[in-house]
Every structure is written in C-alpha cells, then in structure tokens.
Amino acid sequence: MVFSSIEFIFYFLPLVLLVYYLVPDKAKNAVLLMASLVFYAWGAPDFFPIFVASMICNFLITNKMHRTESLKSKKGWLALSMVLNIGLLAYFKYMNFFVDNVNALLQLTHHAALQFTRVALPVGISFFTFQSISYTVDVYRKVSAPLNRWYDYMLYISLFPQLIAGPIIRYNTIADQLVSRSIPMEARVGGFMRFTIGLGKKVLIANTLAVFADEVFAMDFGSMSSGTAWLGILAYTFQIYFDFSGYSDMAIGIGRMLGFRFGENFNVPYISQSISEFWRRWHITLGGFMKEYLYIPLGGNRVSPGRTYFNLWVVFLISGLWHGASWNFVLWGVFHGTFLILDRLFMVGFLKKMGRLPAILLTFLVVMLGWVVFRAETVGDALHFYQALFAFRQGTSAAIAPQFLLFLLLAILFSFSPAFRLGDRCMGGLFAETHSKTATIVLFTISMLLFFISVGNLAVTDFNPFIYFRF
After folding, report:
1. Residue among 88, 60, 63, 54 at smallest CA distance from 140
2. Cα of 338 vs its chain's centroid, Å
3. Quick count: other Cβ atoms within 10 Å of Cβ 114?
4. pLDDT single digits (tens) 151-187
5. CA–CA separation, 177 vs 182, rounded Å?
6. Which of 245, 347, 379, 461 is a good FRET partner for 430, with 20 to 30 A between their CA atoms?
7. Between 293 and 432, residue with greater pLDDT
8. pLDDT tens digits for 250-261?
C-alpha cells in the first residue's frame, strides 16, 4: 500500500486519523503501532513475522547492553545487535547478488553453478534496518536513553509514515516525541497541505515523466537518436527527484498530522553548485546517517587527506550498495565519491570561478549523467546509453505527448526557480511551518484543488510506480 493510492488516501489514512484523534493521549501510541503493523503486513505479509521478531530481539539486546556495567559486555551486545540487523539486510538484499557473482566466476572456470532459491526483497528493509542501528548506537553512546516500553520502540521502527521509504529518522531526533507530543490544529492543517504537495509532485509530475522515461529506457539503445536519449535521461532526472521528494513530503505531512516532526529529506538539490552541495541537499537523512554512523567513526576529515578520500569512497560505495544489490549502484557510488574527492582537490574552487549559474548547470549535468548508470538495468546497458548520448546521431525517436512537455516544463520551473530570489521566497513561503491567516486560507484552497486533481488522476490510471520500493 503506497501513499499515492486510493486505498491509502480514502480508507487507511482517514480511519487511522479518526481513531487517533478520538482516543486519549495514553492510547495514541497503541493505535499508531497497530496501524503501522497492519500497514506493513499489508505490503509484506510473508516477511511480517521476521520483521516483528527482529524488533523484539533488538529491543531486548539494546536494553541488556544499556543495563550492563562492563564496557566489554556493552561492546559485545552492540556487536550482536549489528550482526542481527546487518545480517538480515545482507541476507535478504544481497544474497542473490552474491550468489549470481559466485556463479559467474564458477562459469568462467568451467565449474557447475550453485543451486539456490532466490530470496525475495522485503519492502522498506533498508530504511528500518538503519533506524534499528541508530537506536542501538545512540543508546550505546548515551546520546539518548532507551525506551522503557517495548511498544514505544516498535512504534519508532514501524511508524508507517516513514517505514517504507523514509525519511530515515535517527533515534536521538525523535526520542522525546515517542513519549509525548502535541497536535495543534496548525500542525494538522499544515500537515495536510504538505501531504498534498507531495501527492501532486508524485502523481502529476513524476508519474507523467515516468511514462516517457520508461519508454526510452525500453528502446534499443543502439538505434536510438541522441536527442531521444538526452530527453529520456532528463525525464528520469526529474522523475526520480519528484517521485522520492514527493513521497518524503507526504511522509513529513502525515507525521505532522500525527504530532511528529520529521527532518527534511530534500532541499531543491538541482540548484547545487557542486556535487558536495548536491549531497547536502539530496536525501538529507541518508547523508546524515552515513556521516554520523560511518564517516565520523572512520575518522571523517580529522585524518590525513589520503585517509579522508578513502573514507569518502567507503561511504559512497556503501551508499551505492544501500540503494541496490547491483554493480550499477556500486559504480554510481564510485561516480559520486570520485566527484566529492575532486571537489576537495580543486573542483569547488574551479566552479566558483565559473559563476553561480554555470556552476549549477555543470553540476546538474554531472548528476544527470550519474543517473544513467543508476537507471540502467546493467553496466552494459549504461555504456550503450552513454554511447547514444554522445554519438550525436539521428535514429529512432520516442513519441512526445503534450502533457509530457507541460509537466517537464513545470519540473524545470519548480527545480530551478529557487536559484533566483523570487523563486526562493515563494518556495520558502510554501514550505514554511507557520503562515498568516490569509496565507493559510489561500494555501489550503490550493491544496484542496491539488488534492482533487491528483486523486482524479489516480482514479483514471493504473500507472503509479514508486522508484524507492526497489531499495
């Protein structure tokens, strides 16, 4: 069940909100936990028992770690928690990838391939694994105290607004809210408006661009015209942004309606003037997690320049693998890790000398080229697509629908207008948490209009993909 579905919008969410608002405060966590477990079981019933068992085990392990006085024992319990969480992620997400590569090596040496039953990927496992790690590590570091009640912990891990696709919520940023929170009317109205913004981004812009992008990436790259290739990757570049940021907006909006304050996950990343800045604006909660729990423990930038570059490579190799079990994602991580190192060596200074707008355009081009290897099914497909981009040839073209051009232009407008003062003010006002009474009325009216347009679009089409369900 995805947020941008009729079942969620008209049945699940209204019922949950109705019961949640009616019950007393002491029962709200129980209502949310029940709703979250139903939400997950709906989408992954086969994995549900393991999901629940892993939460219970991690809660008990972390509490045992917290109560022990011996530092050696604490480290042992911490290691056990890491083995549990990372082991589950490794098995379900990477076992197929591992066996496929072993079989490829066996075939090269003329040995029989391993017989193996392929493992299904549970939805959301990358996100809730990271949150389980955050809980244990924050308790180990004494950044936050552990939760006393097992159901509060299970709520933190399974909270349905962020369970499937984030944002990744670090425990120390939400620990107090799990115990006590308020839900003023302004938060409920503001949450609804944020939800509708995300719904519109996902349903109207991302889904429309996805139709064209999917058509292009299904074509024969060897005969494709270069113009079609550039337009296809441009469509995908905006599709993945509006798809994922739209889903994050919906999650943040639902969280606000429930009294939670989730961190922002995107900050107009395509106006970045370097790849380093891009990663401060794109998937912010993943970047924050990697920095806090991997980059800094490795030494961060407090070590020699060579070791710092190595740390960056490790972080982005793991970031690439986190997105998917494929060599494409590994290369995508290497691609961005390389440009981050180049930024530190000379690239940032070079881009500053170019000027703001040229730096934005060059950074956008680099990001867009990176999305090729991210979107392609295999490394070979990515290479063939790059050839189509830079062959500058005539060839097979994809049909361009009028609505595609309309929403592509809207995507460009919304992505780049914040680079200018007027666009930045408008965007800042749109996403502000508080507004004047008049502004609230206007924005609420626009939100209702956007809501009905988006729902109407959902009612007449079955095409509603979500990219990050793959991860």
Report:
1. 63
2. 22
3. 10
4. 999 999 999 999 888 799 999 999 999 988 888 888 8
5. 9
6. 461
7. 293
8. 999 999 999 999
- Neighbouring-strand partners of residue 396: 224
Q: Which amino acid is at 398?
A: A
Q: What is the 3-state secondary structure (H, E, C) of the chain?
A: CCCCCHHHHHHHHHHHHHHHHHCCHHHHHHHHHHHHHHHHHHHCCCCHHHHHHHHHHHHHHHHHHHHCCCHHHHHHHHHHHHHHHHHHHHHHHHHHHHHHHHHHHHHHCCCCCCCCCCCCCCCCHHHHHHHHHHHHHHHHCCCCCCCCCHHHHHHHHHCHHHHCCCCCCCHHHHHHHHHCCCCCHHHHHHHHHHHHHHHHHHHHHHHHHHHHHHHHHCCCCCCECHHHHHHHHHHHHHHHHHHHHHHHHHHHHHHHHCCCCCCCCCCCHHHCCCHHHHHHHCCHHHHHHHHHHHHCCCCCCCCCHHHHHHHHHHHHHHHHHHHCCCHHHHHHHHHHHHHHHHHHHHHHHHHHHHCHHHHHHHHHHHHHHHHHHHHCCCHHHHHHHHHHHHHCCCCECCCCCHHHHHHHHHHHHHHHHHHCHHHHHHHHHHHCCCCCHHHHHHHHHHHHHHHHHHHHHHHCCCCCCCHHHHC
Question: What single-letter amino acid sits at 374?
Answer: F
CB 167 within 8 A of CB 134: no
Residue 434 binned pLDDT confidence (cut-offs 50, 70, 90) = low
Q: Would you mind telling me the total number of residues written for the chain in this entry?
A: 471
Give the integer Cα–Cα distance in Å for 141 and 136: 9
C-alpha span between 201 and 47 (Å, rounded): 30
* Alpha-carbon distances of 331 from 7, 127, 251, 311, 313, rounded to whole Å: 38, 21, 30, 16, 11
Strand partners, 224: 396
d(CA 30, CA 24): 11
For 413-420, the CB contacts below 8 A with 24+ separation are: 414/205, 415/238, 415/241, 415/268, 415/270, 415/271, 416/270, 416/271, 416/360, 418/268, 418/271, 419/268, 419/271, 419/356, 419/357, 419/360
CA distances from 2 to 16, 31, 161, 373 (A): 15, 20, 10, 26
Active site residues: 323
